[in-house]
C-alpha cells in the first residue's frame, strides 16, 4: 500500500459527506404542509459529562431522534503544529505527548520514527523491542480507559473503577521506566534514552499474569449483559465502504470488517517479528467495536509476551548526530496508534527546525463518522457512539 | 377492618373536623378553579386544576366515598393531568402566552355564564326545601365492596351496571385508538 | 359552625360548574378549554356523590366513576386532536380553528 | 387530657381508627423523623456499598468511616447558594421539589409497620398509595418545565412518559395481589394495607409464594416497575447524567436539589414498603402460623436486639482494626462511642424483649410486639434498598425507547396474563 497523503484523505471524506444528506443545515421551511412541532436544537457540550472533554455537538432533534449533528471543535486547540515550526526536532518531542494524552507513548513512537526516517537512521533492535513493549502496554492502557468511560457513558459505573485499577499497574511500569506516568516522553530520536530498569522484564511478566484474568472480569460484566447488548448492538452502524470513504481507521474500521492494521500492513518498529492476529468485526456496530478492542487487548498481551521473552541485548541508541539537521525533503510516516492511524508529515528545509509538521490524528478523522453513525438514532445513542469512536480532544484539536 | 372500629372512626374523627375541613377544601377548590380560567400560563392553570381536583377528592372523602376519591387521585391527578402537562410541553406555548387570553366574544360568554349562575342560584334558593338537611349514613368500610357488587354483580348474577361498565371500557379503547391514530405521524 | 348539608356541596359544585362554563366560553387556548371541561365534569361528579350521600345509596358514586372514565377518554381524544392540529397549523387558539378543511 | 393520651396505649388499632388525633400526630412525627434518618443512613450505605462494589473505600474522612458524611452533605447543601435561573418560572421552580416531597411523604400515612403501627388504616389504602405516589411525577415534570432549559425538559418528558407507562403494569400486578386477598373464608377482598397483610396471615402464605409462580411473577413485575417508578438505575432515564447532564434537576442547586434527593429516597422506601406489604407478608415474622408457640414468639423477639448486638460487634472490630497513629485517635473514640450506642440500643431491645415476654396487656408487652413488627418490616424493606444499590452498581442504563418497549410490550401483557390466570385459578381453588 502506498503512503496516503492528506489530500487523498480529504478527497475521500468530501465524497462521503456530499453523498450523505446534509439538508439539516439549511432546513427547508417553505414546505408548510407538514410542520414538525417537536424540532429541538440542543447544544451537547462543550461542558457535558459525556463528550470526553470539550467537544461540542450541535444536535438537531425530533423529540429524541437525531436528525443531524454538527461537531464544533477547537476548544482545546493549542497550535501544536505551529509550535513545531519554532522548536528543534529534539525540543518538539515532548509536545507530541500532549496530543493524545491517553496514549503518549504511541505518539512519541510515531514522531521519533518519522524523524528517524527523515534522517535515514535506524534504532537498534533492543530499542525497537523496548518500543514495542511500551507501545503495546500503552495500547492496553488506552483501551482500558476507553472501556471504562464508554461503559460509564452507557450507564455502567463499575467497569470504570476496575479498568482504572488495572491501568494503574501499567502506569507504574511507565513511571519506573521513565519517571512519568501520563506524558511519558519515553523515546528519543534514534532509540530510547533509558535502559530498562532492573526487574523491568519481571514487572511486565507479572503484569501479563495479573491482567489476563482481568479482561475476563470486564467481559463478565458486559459482554453478555442483556442491557449492554441492547444498548450497543445495531447502534452506530457504519459500513466498510463508508468507513473507508471517510478515512476512518483503527478499531472503528476493523469492526466494520476491514482487516487493516498498519502493524501488519506496513510493519514498523519490530512488529514484523511477532505473531499476532488482527481482530475484525462483521456488523460495524458499537458492540463489534467493543469486541474488537477487547480482543486487541489480548493480542497486545501476546505481542508483549513475545517481545519481553525475546528482547535482545545491545545498544539502545542509534547513530544520531549531536545536532539534528535532516536533509531537505519531506516524509510521511504513520503508525497504528490505539485509536487508529497516527501519521506525521514533516517537511524539512535543511535547518534544525521542521519547516512544516502536520499530524494526522486518528480521533479527528474518526470523529467525522459521528454524523453518519448517529443519524436516526436517539440522544442516548449519541453518547454511546461518541464513546465508541474513542476520541481524545487533545488530539482532535491539537 | 371490623364495623366497630369503623364506627369509631366515623364517630371519633369525622364530625370534629367536618365544617372546618369543608370550608377549607371548598375554598381551595373554588379559588384554584378561578385560577384555572384566569391564568395566562397553561402550566400554572394545570397546577391550579390539580389543586382543585385534589380538594374535590377531599370533599369525596367527607361524603363517605373513599373509592371515588381514590379513583379521582389516580386517574385525574396522576393520569389525566400528567397527560395535560405532557401536551402543554409538547406544544410550544411561548407564543400563546404573549397573546390575548380571551377570545373576541368573551362578553357574550360571560353573560351566558352569568345567566347560568342566576339559574343555579334561583334553583338552589327556591329548591332548598327539596334537599333534606342531613345525609344518610353510608357504610364507609365496605364502600369498595359495595361498588364492586353494583358494578360486577355477585354470586354469578350480573350486576346492575355490568353492561354499562363494558361499554365504558369499549369507549376507552376507542379513545386510545383515536388518540394514537391522530397523533402518529406516519401510520 | 353550621352543619354541612347537601346544599353546601351543591353550592360548591355550582360554582365550579359556572367557572368551567366561563372558561370554555371565553378562553382562547384549547388546552385551557379542555381543562375547563374537566372542571365542569368535576362539578357534576361532586353533585352526584353528594346526592349519593343524601339518598344513602351508591348509584351516584357509580355514575361518578363512569364520568371519570368518560373524562379520561375525552382528555385522550381531545389532546390527540390538539396535537394533530398543532402539527398542521402551529396554533392552539380556538378562534383560529375556523376552517373546515385546509 | 392525659387520660385521652394514655387511653390509646392499651388499644390494638391504629390512631386513625381510634380517632385519637394526638397519637396520630405523634405517629406522623415519628415516621417523618424515621424516614429522614433512614434517608440519611441510606445515603451513607449507598455510597459505602457502591464504593465497595467498585473497589473503593467511599467516604472516610468525615467521622469514622465517613459516618458523619450525610450530615456534612446536608449542611453543605443547606448553606449553598440557591440559584434560580433568570428565565425560569420562579413560582413553579420554587414549588416543584415540594410537590415531589409532599407526595413521597404523604404515602407513609397508610404504610402499616404493624397491625396498629400505622397512622391510619384507610379502606382504600393501596389505591391511595398508588395514587399519591404517582403524584410525585408531577413535581418532576413541572420542575423540568420551569427550569426553561432543554435538558431538564427532555428529562421531564422522559420521566412522565416512563411513569405513565409503568404505572399500568404496576397497577395490574397490584390488582392480582388484591385478588388473592379475597381467597379466604368470607370471600371478600380488601384494599386496606393492614387487611392485605392479615389476609396473608389467614391464608398462611406470603402472596409471593401463592399459586407459584403466579404470585412470584406479579411480584417481579412490580419489582421492575417500582425501579422505573422511582427513576433508579437501570431506568434512570430522567436524570441520566451521561446523556442529560442531570436531567430534570440540572438547574437546581442547594437546598432545593436536596429536597429532590430526599423525595427520591423517600419514594424508594415507600414503594419498597408496598412490595413488602403486598407480597412479603408485611410486618409478619417468618412462619408466624407454623411456629406459633410463645417460646417461638420469645425467640423471634430476640432478633432485633441480636441484630443491633451484631452491628455493635462489627463496629467494635472496626475500632480494634483502626490504625494506632495518634492521627486516628479522635476517629477511634468516635467509632467506639458509636459502637457503644449500638450496644446500648441492643441491650435496651433485649431488656424489652425479656420484660414483655409473657404478659399480654402490659405496656412492655405492647412495646415488644411493636418493636417486633417494625423490625421485620424494616428488615424486609432494607433488602429492597440493598437491591436498589446492587442494580445501580451492576447494570448499564436502558435506552428510552427500549424502556418503553419493555413497559408496553413485555410487562403489560405478562401482568395482564398473570391477572387473568390468577383470577381463573382463584375461582377454581376457592
Report on this structure.
The complex is a heterotetramer of chains A (398), B (187), C (102) and D (430). With 398 residues, chain A is of the alpha+beta class. Chain A contains 16 helices and eight strands. Chain A has two domains: 70 residues, no CATH class; 318 residues, Orthogonal Bundle (Cytochrome-c3 Hydrogenase, chain B). Helices cover 48% and strands 13% of the residues of chain A. In chain A, strand 6 and strand 7 form a beta hairpin. Chain C is elongated, with a radius of gyration of 17 Å. The model of chain D has no long low-confidence stretch (mean pLDDT 83). Chain D is built from 16 helices and no strands. The longest helix of chain D is centred in the first third of the chain and has 33 residues. Chains B and C meet through helix 2, helix 3, helix 4, helix 5 and helix 6 of B and helix 1, helix 2 and helix 3 of C.
Number of strands of chain D: 0
- Output the helix-strand order of chain D: HHHHHHHHHHHHHHHH
Strand content of chain D: under 5%
Shape-level CATH architecture of the largest domain in chain B: Up-down Bundle
Number of helices of chain D: 16
Q: Into which percent range does the helicity of residues of chain D fall?
A: 55-70%
The count of β-strands of chain B is: 0
Unreliable segments of chain B (pLDDT under 50, ≥5 consecutive)?
Answer: 1-16
What summary fits the major beta sheet of chain B?
none
**Low-pLDDT regions of chain D:** none
- What is the 3D form of chain B? globular
* Relevant CATH superfamily of the largest domain in chain B: NADH-ubiquinone/plastoquinone oxidoreductase chain 6, subunit NuoJ
Question: Strand pairing plus helix content of chain D: what structural class?
Answer: mainly alpha
Individual helix count of chain B: 7
The ordered string of helix (H) and strand (E) elements of chain B is HHHHHHH
Tell me the radius of gyration of chain D.
Answer: 23 Å
Distance between the termini of chain B: 51 Å
Largest sheet of chain D: none
Major protein interface? B-C, 89 and 76 residues
Amino acid at each position: 500500500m502506498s503512503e496516503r497523503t492528506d489530500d487523498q484523505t480529504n478527497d475521500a471524506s468530501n465524497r462521503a459527506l456530499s453523498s450523505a444528506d446534509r439538508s439539516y443545515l439549511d432546513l427547508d421551511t417553505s414546505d408548510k404542509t407538514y410542520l414538525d412541532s417537536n424540532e429541538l436544537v440542543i447544544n451537547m457540550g462543550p461542558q457535558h459529562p459525556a463528550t470526553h472533554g470539550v467537544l461540542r455537538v450541535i444536535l438537531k432533534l425530533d423529540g429524541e431522534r437525531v436528525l443531524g449533528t454538527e461537531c464544533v471543535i477547537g476548544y482545546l486547540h493549542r497550535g501544536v503544529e505551529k509550535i513545531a515550526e519554532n522548536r528543534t526536532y529534539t525540543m518538539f518531542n515532548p509536545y507530541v505527548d500532549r496530543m493524545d494524552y491517553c496514549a503518549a507513548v504511541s505518539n512519541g513512537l510515531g514522531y521519533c520514527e518519522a524523524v528517524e526516517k527523515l534522517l535515514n537512521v535506524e534504532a537498534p533492535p533492543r530499542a525497537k523491542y523496548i518500543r514495542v513493549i511500551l507501545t503495546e502496554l500503552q495500547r492496553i492502557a488506552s483501551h482500558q480507559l476507553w472501556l471504562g468511560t464508554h461503559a460509564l457513558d452507557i450507564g455502567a459505573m463499575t467497569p470504570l473503577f476496575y479498568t482504572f485499577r488495572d491501568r494503574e499497574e501499567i502506569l507504574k511500569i511507565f513511571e519506573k521506566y521513565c519517571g512519568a506516568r501520563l506524558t511519558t516522553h519515553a523515546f528519543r530520536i534514534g532509540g530510547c534514552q533509558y535502559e530498562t530498569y532492573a526487574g523491568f522484564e519481571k514487572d511486565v511478566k507479572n503484569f501479563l499474569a495479573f491482567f489476563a484474568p482481568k479482561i475476563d472480569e470486564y467481559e463478565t460484566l458486559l459482554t453478555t449483559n442483556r442491557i449492554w447488548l441492547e444498548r450497543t448492538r445495531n447502534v452506530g452502524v457504519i459500513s466498510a465502504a463508508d468507513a473507508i470513504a471517510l478515512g476512518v481507521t483503527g478499531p472503528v474500521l476493523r469492526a466494520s470488517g476491514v482487516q487493516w492494521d498498519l502493524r501488519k500492513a506496513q510493519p514498523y518498529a519490530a512488529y514484523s517479528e511477532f505473531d499476532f492476529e488482527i481482530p475484525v468485526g462483521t456488523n460495524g456496530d458499537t458492540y463489534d467495536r467493543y469486541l474488537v478492542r477487547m480482543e486487541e487487548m489480548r493480542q497486545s498481551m501476546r505481542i508483549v509476551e513475545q517481545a519481553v521473552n525475546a528482547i535482545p541485548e545491545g545498544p539502545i541508541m542509534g547513530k544520531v548526530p549531536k545536532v539534528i539537521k535532516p536533509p531537505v525533503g519531506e516524509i510521511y510516516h504513520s503508525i497504528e496508534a490505539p485509536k487508529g492511524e497516527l501519521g506525521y508529515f514533516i517537511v524539512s528545509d535543511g535547518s534544525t527546525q521542521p519547516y512544516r509538521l502536520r499530524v494526522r490524528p486518528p480521533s479527528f478523522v474518526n470523529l467525522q463518522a459521528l454524523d453518519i453513525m448517529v443519524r436516526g438514532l436517539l440522544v442516548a445513542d449519541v453518547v454511546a457512539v461518541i464513546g465508541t469512536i474513542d476520541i481524545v480532544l487533545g488530539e482532535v484539536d491539537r | 377492618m371490623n364495623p366497630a372500629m369503623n364506627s369509631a372512626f366515623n364517630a371519633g374523627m369525622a364530625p370534629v373536623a367536618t365544617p372546618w375541613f369543608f370550608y377549607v377544601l371548598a375554598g381551595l377548590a373554588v379559588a384554584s378553579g378561578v385560577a384555572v380560567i384566569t391564568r395566562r400560563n397553561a402550566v400554572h392553570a394545570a397546577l391550579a386544576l390539580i389543586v382543585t381536583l385534589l380538594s374535590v377528592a377531599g370533599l369525596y372523602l367527607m361524603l363517605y366515598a373513599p373509592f371515588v376519591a381514590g379513583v379521582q387521585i389516580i386517574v385525574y391527578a396522576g393520569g389525566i393531568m400528567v397527560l395535560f402537562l405532557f401536551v402543554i410541553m409538547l406544544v410550544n406555548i411561548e407564543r400563546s402566552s404573549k397573546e390575548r387570553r380571551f377570545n373576541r366574544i368573551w362578553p357574550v360568554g360571560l353573560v351566558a355564564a352569568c345567566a347560568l349562575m342566576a339559574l343555579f342560584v334561583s334553583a338552589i334558593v327556591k329548591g332548598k326545601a327539596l334537599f333534606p338537611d342531613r345525609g344518610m349514613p353510608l357504610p364507609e368500610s365496605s364502600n369498595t365492596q359495595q361498588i364492586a357488587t353494583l358494578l360486577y354483580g355477585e354470586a354469578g348474577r350480573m350486576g346492575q351496571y355490568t353492561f354499562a361498565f363494558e361499554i365504558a371500557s369499549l369507549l376507552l379503547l376507542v379513545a386510545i385508538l383515536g388518540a394514537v391514530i391522530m397523533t402518529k405521524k406516519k401510520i | 359552625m353550621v352543619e354541612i348539608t347537601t346544599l353546601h356541596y351543591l353550592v360548591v359544585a355550582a360554582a365550579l360548574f359556572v367557572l368551567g362554563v366561563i372558561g370554555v366560553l371565553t378562553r382562547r387556548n384549547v388546552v385551557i378549554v379542555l381543562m375547563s371541561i374537566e372542571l365542569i365534569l368535576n362539578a357534576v361528579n361532586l353533585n352526584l356523590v353528594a346526592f349519593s350521600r343524601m339518598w344513602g345509596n351508591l348509584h351516584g358514586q357509580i355514575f361518578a366513576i363512569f364520568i371519570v372514565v368518560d373524562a379520561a377518554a375525552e382528555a385522550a381524544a381531545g389532546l390527540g386532536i390538539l396535537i394533530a392540529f398543532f402539527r398542521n397549523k402551529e396554533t392552539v387558539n380556538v378562534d383560529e380553528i375556523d376552517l373546515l378543511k385546509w | 387530657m392525659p387520660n385521652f393520651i394514655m387511653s390509646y396505649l392499651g388499644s390494638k388499632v391504629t390512631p386513625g381508627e381510634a380517632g385519637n388525633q394526638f397519637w396520630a400526630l405523634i405517629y406522623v412525627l415519628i415516621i417523618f423523623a424515621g424516614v429522614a434518618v433512614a434517608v440519611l443512613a441510606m445515603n451513607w450505605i449507598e455510597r459505602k456499598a457502591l464504593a465497595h462494589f467498585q473497589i473503593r473505600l467511599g467516604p472516610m474522612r468525615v467521622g469514622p468511616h465517613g459516618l458523619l458524611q450525610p450530615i456534612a452533605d446536608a449542611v453543605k447543601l443547606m448553606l449553598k447558594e440557591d440559584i434560580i435561573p433568570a428565565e425560569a418560572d420562579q413560582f413553579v421552580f420554587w414549588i416543584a421539589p415540594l410537590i415531589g416531597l409532599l407526595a413521597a411523604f404523604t404515602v407513609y400515612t397508610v404504610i402499616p409497620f404493624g397491625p396498629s403501627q400505622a397512622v391510619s388504616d384507610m379502606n382504600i389504602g393501596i389505591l391511595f398509595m398508588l395514587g399519591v405516589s404517582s403524584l410525585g411525577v408531577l413535581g418532576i415534570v413541572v420542575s423540568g418545565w420551569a427550569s426553561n432549559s432543554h435538558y431538564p425538559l427532555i428529562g421531564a418528558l422522559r420521566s412522565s412518559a416512563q411513569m405513565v407507562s409503568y404505572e399500568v403494569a404496576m397497577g395490574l400486578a397490584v390488582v392480582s395481589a388484591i385478588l388473592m386477598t379475597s381467597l379466604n373464608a368470607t370471600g371478600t377482598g380488601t384494599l386496606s394495607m393492614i387487611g392485605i397483610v392479615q389476609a396473608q396471615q389467614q391464608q398462611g402464605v406470603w402472596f409471593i409464594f401463592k399459586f407459584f409462580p403466579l404470585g412470584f411473577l406479579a411480584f417481579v413485575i412490580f419489582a421492575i416497575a417500582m425501579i422505573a417508578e422511582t427513576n433508579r438505575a437501570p431506568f434512570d432515564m430522567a436524570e441520566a447524567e451521561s446523556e442529560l447532564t442531570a436531567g430534570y434537576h440540572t438547574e437546581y442547586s442547594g437546598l432545593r436539589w436536596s429536597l429532590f434527593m430526599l423525595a427520591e429516597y423517600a419514594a424508594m422506601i415507600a414503594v419498597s414498603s408496598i412490595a413488602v406489604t403486598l407480597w412479603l407478608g408485611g410486618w409478619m415474622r417468618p412462619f408466624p402460623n407454623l411456629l406459633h408457640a410463645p417460646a417461638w414468639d420469645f425467640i423471634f423477639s430476640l432478633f432485633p436486639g441480636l441484630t443491633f448486638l451484631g452491628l455493635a460487634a462489627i463496629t467494635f472490630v472496626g475500632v480494634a482494626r483502626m490504625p494506632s497513629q495518634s492521627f486516628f485517635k479522635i476517629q477511634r473514640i468516635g467509632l467506639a462511642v458509636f459502637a457503644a450506642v449500638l450496644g446500648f440500643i441492643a441491650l435496651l431491645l433485649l431488656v424489652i424483649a425479656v420484660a414483655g415476654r409473657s404478659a399480654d396487656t402490659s405496656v412492655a408487652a405492647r412495646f415488644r410486639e411493636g418493636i417486633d413488627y417494625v423490625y421485620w418490616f424494616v428488615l424486609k424493606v432494607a433488602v429492597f434498598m440493598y437491591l436498589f444499590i446492587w442494580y445501580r452498581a451492576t447494570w448499564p442504563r436502558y435506552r428510552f425507547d427500549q424502556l418503553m418497549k419493555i413497559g408496553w410490550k413485555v410487562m403489560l401483557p405478562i401482568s395482564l396474563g398473570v391477572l387473568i390466570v390468577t383470577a381463573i385459578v382463584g375461582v377454581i381453588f376457592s
